[in-house]
Design goal:
Elements lengths: L2 H23 L19 E7 L6 H9 L6 E7 L6 H11 L3 E5 L9 H12 L4 E5 L3 E3 L3 H12 L3 E3 L2 E3 L4 H6 L2 H9 L2 H6 L12 E5 H7 L11 H11 L4 E3 L2 E7 L5 H15 L6 H12 L1 H7 L6 H26 L14
Parallel strand pairs: 1-2, 1-4, 2-3, 6-9, 7-10
Antiparallel strand pairs: 4-8, 5-10, 6-8
Helix pairs in contact: 1-7, 1-12, 1-14, 7-14, 9-10, 13-14
């Protein structure tokens, strides 16, 4: 294969995800603010948080949820055999606010992943028609619950998810965390996701899911994905296999999350998510070729500038520019609050 052909391949593999990313930005929008007073009664929501040794996070997670109003809600925390002060922190909140409940996880049955079992138990404890599953390191913004409840009701969706604004500190976080949005928006055709119910278009983020309780039961909920570590992809697939609808929204001004705190955590976490998230070992090779061809090959060709022709070099430079533009967009979407809908105070009708 000649250098010019390689450059053309690199250009295609860099430009197509950039174009799809831009198309997806017209679809991937944040839930609009809900005016006060609202034009209709919003459905009640159960905020469900699995927690195992989360004493450093659980207080802030509960406090952020309680800073919401405009609808009825509860916060249920499942203490999954924690060895720290997680349960005591939740109990302190529960004594001050009746909307907070603490439950203890039963022993983990054979064949279950711990998080999926915890979410399954939490769903059984919920009292309200909408279930909001949150990781303990997610912080809801004020007004988030009302916005989410109004949005899912308006769109008549069964399961929805969004990637919260990613708070980063270390250089490796800043370099790698935006890959979540790069993959999501650069390689998933979101208009097709909304037009068709095929499981092939399933996607989500395990940090934040909101589901209609009746649909959750029909799809089998987390029991349908009991063996996996990765609910971000598998839970939407289970819903779609049951003939239900799933959707995505920009959650960067609805919630925030600090996933990892050092380079070792980033490497372990993203490695696990990559292996599980692809969902099929046979896809690792094709994904590697797609990503390497669009985001590594252009720069390899630029390094080979003394040995390739001017035209080939120009094509490689355009491919490199498309790759950098895509990464820049992913950083912006991942770490900057989303583009709000109607201004606050304008009711969502």
């Amino acid at each position: 294969m000649t250098a010019e052909v390689l450059a053309m391949v690199a250009l295609v593999l860099a430009a197509l995800p950039l174009a799809l990313f831009l198309v997806n930005l017209t679809v991937y929008r944040p839930p609009p603010p809900v005016g006060v007073p609202t034009s209709r009664k919003l459905p009640a929501v159960s905020v469900l948080i699995p927690a195992r040794n989360e004493s450093a996070n659980i207080g802030a997670a509960i406090a952020s949820a309680l800073h919401n109003d405009g609808l009825e809600f509860e916060v249920v925390v499942l203490d999954d055999h924690s060895e720290d002060d997680t349960a005591a922190i939740v109990q302190a909140f529960a004594r001050r606010d009746p909307r907070v409940r603490l439950a203890s996880a039963p022993p983990l049955p054979g064949g279950w992943c711990g998080k999926q079992h915890a979410c399954h138990v939490l769903a059984g404890l919920a009292r309200h028609p909408w279930l909001l599953f949150l990781d303990a390191d997610v912080r809801l913004e004020p007004g988030a619950l009302a916005r989410l409840a109004a949005w899912v009701e308006q769109r008549n969706v069964d399961l929805a998810s969004g990637v919260p604004r990613q708070v980063t500190g270390t250089w490796l976080e800043k370099l790698l965390i935006p890959l979540v949005h790069l993959i999501l928006l650069g390689y998933l055709p979101m208009p097709f996701m909304r037009w068709f119910r095929s499981p092939a278009f399933a996607a989500g983020c395990g940090q934040l899911f909101i589901a209609r309780a009746t649909a959750y039961a029909r799809a089998g909920g987390h029991a349908a994905i009991r063996t996996t570590l990765h609910d971000g992809l598998r839970l939407p697939k289970a819903f779609r296999r049951a003939g239900l609808t799933t959707d995505l929204f920009d959650a960067t001004d609805v919630a925030s999350c600090r996933m990892y705190h050092d380079a070792a955590e980033v490497w372990r976490g993203l490695g696990k998510n990559a292996a599980e998230g692809i969902a099929a070992p046979g896809l690792i090779g094709p994904w590697t070729l797609l990503l390497a061809g669009g985001h590594v090959l252009p720069f390899v060709l630029l390094l080979a500038a003394p040995w390739i022709g001017t035209q080939t070099l120009a094509i490689a430079a355009i491919a490199a520019g498309a790759s950098l533009a895509l990464r820049g967009l992913a950083v912006a979407v991942s770490t900057i609050c989303g583009r709000a809908g109607p201004p606050a105070g304008q009711p969502l009708r």
